[in-house]
Every structure is written in C-alpha cells, then in structure tokens.
Specification:
589 residues, alpha/beta, Phosphoenolpyruvate Carboxykinase, domain 1, Phosphoenolpyruvate Carboxykinase, domain 2, 3 domains, 9-stranded mixed sheet, 30% helix, binds guanosine-5'-triphosphate, binds sulfopyruvate, binds manganese (II) ion
C-alpha cells in the first residue's frame, strides 16, 4: 500500500510489521466497500442486521460483557515528564509505555485484517479541521468511524504529503481487561488502544483525539478543545444565539442539544438547532468573539431514557443508518428496545449480553439494555440539525454553561460575575459518576469543565490556559452553571428537565442581552423565582424558589472540598483561581 505522505507510509508499515495482520485494507469511503464490510460483519456475527423496513440501514452490535464503557483507570497520558500529565491523569513515561505496549501489540492481528481509516475531525478542508489515521482490526470500529467522522480517500487527498496527522493504532487483541490500555502520547500526536472493542475506547477520533490530544494542541496553538455540546437558540424575531455547554458523561448534553421547547415557547417561535452534542473546538475570531465547531459528524448517544417525549430528535436520528450497541433485540420483529423507550418491553427478546430476556427477568428488575448502551447515528439524520453544522468558521458563542449532577448544593442556575469567575465556576464543577465509565455510579467527584477524564495535560496548566484565553477574547460570552438534577428528601428530581430546560436557556439568553433580572449571592447571580418563565408549567413560585436556594452550610463544605482539590494542583494553580476561591469563602462568612 502506497501513500503520498511519508509519515502515513511509515506509520502503516511499522504497525503492519508489529501487528502482522494477514491483510491490509484502505477504507476509501465508498458505499460499495462499506456494504461489503457490513455483510462480512453480519456473516461472522459481529453485527446483526435489523428489520430493514422499520430500521433501514440499521445494525446491532454486542460488546464483550467486560467491555461496556470507558475505562478511566486504564487510560494514560504518556509524556516524557510526569508533571506534564499532572496530578489528575494516570501517567506513564512515554518510552516505557511504548515498550510495554509493543509487547501487547506484537502479532495481535495475526489471522485478521488491518483497516486503514483516514478521517477528518471537522469538515474536510476547513481551516479548523484536523486529520487522523486510525488503524484497527475491527469492522465495528470502521463502520462507527464512518458515521462519527468524515472518512475516505478525500481525507488523504487533503493531507497530501504532509505529516500533520494523529496516529491511532487500535487492536482488539483478546479483549483482556488486565491488558487493556488506552494511551495518549500528546507530544507525539499518537494514540494506542488495545484489548477493548467499546465506543469511547476505540473510536479514536472522539475522546482520545478530539479531547485528549486536541486539548494539548489547543494549548500550544491558542484554542480550546472542550467536552461541550453546541446549540443555536432561535428567538421569535429570527435571531439565533449560540450556546456551548459542558456536562460530564451521561449528564444531559445530547438531550439539551436537541431540546424541543415547551408549547408556550414553541408557539411564540422559539427553536433549538443542534450544532454538536459532545465536543466543541473553540477559537477566537478576528472580531474578538469565541467561535465553536463540532469536529464530529454523528452522535454516539446514550440509549436508555431516550424516547418520543424526552428526546424525539435523538430518537428520529436513530431510525436509519444507525448502529446500536448493547441494547435489547426484539426477536418478534427484529427491532431494538431499551429501558425508557416506551412502556412495552418486547415479549420475546435477547438482552445486551446475548441471553434470552424473559418476563421473569423483567419482574426481577433485570435490565435488558446495558445502562451505557448507545446508538451511533449520522448527524444529518437529526431533524433539528443546524444549518451551520458544517460552517467552516464555526458559530459565535454568547454563553458558556457548565453543569453537573448534584442532588444538593448547586442551584438550578447561576451566573458568573466575569471571565475569571466563570473559569472558576467551571473549575469547581462536581458531579455524580455515571455508567459512561466503568466503576461506581452516583459518587460525587470534582470534574472540572467535565474534562477530568479528557484533559491531555496538566489540569493546572489547563486552568491557566482558560484564564489566558480571557485576554484574547475581547467580546466575551457570559458564563453560567446549571443543575437539572437537584432532588427532594425522597430523591425525586425537583425540576422537570428536558424540554423545560428551555426556561433556563431563556433566562440565560436574556441575561446576555441585559433584559432579565437576578440577585447577587455568595456564588454569583441567581434568578429571582419570577425571572424564570413558568408559563404552562405546573410549578409554584415556592417550588422554583426551592430550586434556587444557595445553602451556605453546604457551600462551605464544598469550598473545603475545592480547597483539597486545588491543593493537588500545587503551584500550577493559577493565582486568579486561588483569589476566586478566597472570595467565595469570604462571601460565605
Ligand atoms: P455522553 O454521551 O456520555 O457524553 O452523555 P450526555 O451528556 O450527552 O447525556 P445524555 O443527554 O445522553 O443524558 C444522559 C442521561 O441523563 C439520560 O438517561 C437522560 O435521560 C438523562 N437526562 C438528560 N437530560 C435530563 C434532564 O434535564 N433531567 C433529568 N432528570 N434527566 C436528564
Ligand atoms: C462519554 O463518556 O462522555 C461519551 C461516550 O460521550 S464515549 O464515547 O464512550 O466516551
Ligand atoms: Mn461525552
């Protein structure tokens, strides 16, 4: 196989020599080639072809039972010096990592085919876009990458003889948990992933490249790679305001990005347009504003809970050309099901592990779909996709939102006082853990900017980069924090969420325009209950007041916890953030 780029040639040749596949196949992006791969995956049982009348172009895949989520404990930032990975990342010295990994990759593709996937993050040829080459022995990975990114010969043509691309080597090997490694080498533009076949571990364009490697590049080059959705909020006067929002995994990005406004708002002409649901690359434009692109081309969304009421746009996106992972197979009509899709679980079904899923199982509370089961759907399927989805310059941001899953402490919404305070609000984010990563669920941890598992360098340097960006952004967006997940004493959500989150977005946009009121509290500006439009919602002013309280005792505890987190960053912690924490503490006295 011959490549114009010497770098690509060397990467492929060396990887072939190491992994010794029987065959090497270039993914050119042609429908013919992809159709043959789908047929092959069906013949080997790697994928199940679903009912083509009800779900045209759709397939189901089941991963190994031990391989259902990202594995943060086995994810490493591999650099020359530990300080450059920082205290929040797992680190390996990079030469030692290469040496250890090469032993695992040796001969790992014997008897298998290596696929060469040239892909672009961002529209092909856009000045914001970046190119990757992923080598993999998984057809599932090829077919997912084709949905999630722009793949094929056109990418190689754009790369030409340049060596400016990210190397990604993925081998399924034996799906051995003990030898599973997701390693990023930001200093070498390289990713090595082995012994997994699950989503975020193996679709290397996503978290590994577009966040871990890209965040490092962003610091060198003066931009930001963030775990953020991007949406356009169209107002009745036809004007569209753009918002980016960072929530941790499985905390509502896809849902907010595709929000359908409540009837009272829809009637007036409010609409939401989706630009992205997971990742934003943000640069400063010549006019001093922040511009965001979504580098992805599809959605790798959480299936459970997605339904015609909670997120009709996501559901519609999955009705064709979609790959489902670890959901229930309805054997009566060869379609798929998951918890929270509707109230009618299929009579005859196979669960995500490939076993019969019976009425008895359901009665015993055995789930049919894995809590982190997912759909991989093309962005262009989404009924509310923005007409600026592929805008090569990106969309200008008016507001940046941070948020997490907090039963207590964080109010429904608050606004930061200024840029540095906004960065502080992002840096102190905390959230309950979810099924998106292996390990305990529901444990509160600090997850700054929703980037704890995704920052490719020292978190202290990352905070400093955010602070410094403030000098370049002369027309600044406003910063907010939201929490859809506050609960009462019995653990019920106090806020209806989903479409009703529009009411909070409405206050946020009116704040950026200077037409909504708020009160100053120790943590920032909080709306008065009457500042949130509750028209058509069965909630009293008292209910909403409960959602907006700032409990000083809880916040003092939180401030102590932040103190502990900040201490880990040592002298890398920017002075500006230290000052913000002192201000918070003083305000709470
Ligand atoms: P990743 O793809 O892992 O990054 O997740 P995400 O941030 O895109 O989360 P997603 O929108 O898929 O939502 C995850 C879970 O949160 C689903 O079970 C949703 O039903 C639930 N959820 C989303 N929005 C809300 C909300 O406003 N209120 C409540 N109570 N639950 C929500
Ligand atoms: C997340 O966990 O934030 C995801 C899913 O978006 S994964 O691609 O597995 O990272
Ligand atoms: Mn995500």
């Amino acid at each position: 196989m011959k490549f114009q780029s010497k770098g690509v040639q060397q990467f492929v040749d060396e990887s072939v020599a190491l992994c010794t596949p029987d065959k090497v196949v270039l993914i050119d992006g042609s429908e013919e080639q992809l159709e043959a791969l789908r047929a092959e995956a069906v013949s080997t049982g790697e994928m199940i072809k679903l009912n083509q009348e009800l779900l045209p172009g759709c397939y189901l895949h089941r991963t190994a039972v031990n391989d259902v989520a990202r594995v943060e404990g086995r994810t490493f930032i591999c650099t020359e010096k530990q300080e450059d990975a920082g205290p929040t990342n797992n680190w390996m010295q990079k030469d030692e990592a290469y040496k250890m990994l090469k032993e695992i990759y040796k001969g790992a593709m014997k008897g298998r085919t290596m696929y060469v996937i040239p892909y672009s993050m961002g529209a092909v040829g856009s000045p914001f876009s970046k190119i990757g080459i992923e080598l993999t022995d998984s057809i599932y990975v090829v077919l997912n990458m084709v949905i999630m990114t722009r793949v094929g010969q056109k990418v190689l043509d754009t790369l030409g003889d340049s060596d400016d691309f990210v190397r990604g080597l993925h081998a399924k090997a034996d799906i051995d948990e003990e030898k599973r490694y997701i390693c990023q080498f930001p200093e070498d533009n390289t990713i090595m992933s082995v012994n997994s076949g699950y989503g975020g571990n193996v679709l290397l364009g996503k978290k590994c490249f577009a966040l871990r490697i890209a965040s490092y590049l962003g610091r060198q080059e003066g931009w930001l790679a963030e775990h953020m959705l991007i949406l356009g909020l169209e107002k009745p006067n036809g004007e569209t305001k753009y918002i980016a929002a960072a929530f941790p995994s499985a905390c509502g990005k896809t849902n907010l990005a595709m929000l359908i406004p409540p009837e009272e708002f829809a009637k007036k002409g409010y609409k939401v347009h989706t630009v992205g649901d997971d990742i934003a690359w943000i640069r400063v434009g010549a006019d001093g504003r922040m511009y965001a692109i979504n580098p992805e081309n599809g959605f790798f969304g959480v299936a459970p809970g997605t339904n015609a009421k909670s997120n009709p746009n996501a559901l519609a996106s999955t009705r064709k050309n979609t790959i489902f992972t670890n959901v229930v197979l309805n054997t009566d009509n060869n379609t798929v099901w998951w918890e929270g899709l509707d109230k009618n679980p299929p009579e005859h079904a196979i669960d995500w592990k490939g076993n019969p899923w019976t009425a008895e199982d359901r009665a015993n509370g055995v789930k049919g779909a894995h809590p982190n089961s997912r759909f991989t759907a093309p962005a262009k399927n989404c009924p509310c996709i923005s007409d600026r989805f592929e805008d090569p310059q990106g969309v200008p941001l008016d507001a940046i939102i941070f948020g997490g899953r907090r039963a207590k402490t964080a109010p429904l919404v608050y606004e930061a006082r200024d840029w540095n305070h906004g960065v502080f609000v992002g840096s102190i984010m905390a959230s309950e853990t979810t099924a998106a990563a292996s390990g305990a669920v529901g444990v509160v941890r600090r997850d700054p900017m929703a980037m704890l598992p995704f920052c490719g360098y020292n978190m202290g340097d990352y905070f400093a980069h955010w602070i410094e960006m403030g000098d370049k952004v002369t027309k600044k967006p406003k910063f907010f924090n939201v929490n859809w997940f506050r609960t009462d004493e019995e653990g019920h959500f106090l806020w209806p969420g989903f479409g009703d989150n529009m009411r909070v977005l409405d206050w946020i946009i009116r704040r950026t325009e200077g037409t909504a009121d708020a009160v100053e509290t120790p943590i920032g500006y909080v709306p008065n209950p009457e500042d949130i439009n509750l028209e058509g919602l069965d909630m009293t002013t008292e209910d909403i007041a409960n959602l907006l309280t700032v409990d000083k005792t809880l916040w003092k505890e939180d401030a102590e916890n932040i103190e502990g987190f900040y201490a880990k960053l040592g002298d890398k912690l920017p002075k500006a953030l230290r000052k913000e924490l002192d201000t918070l503490k003083a305000n709470l006295e």
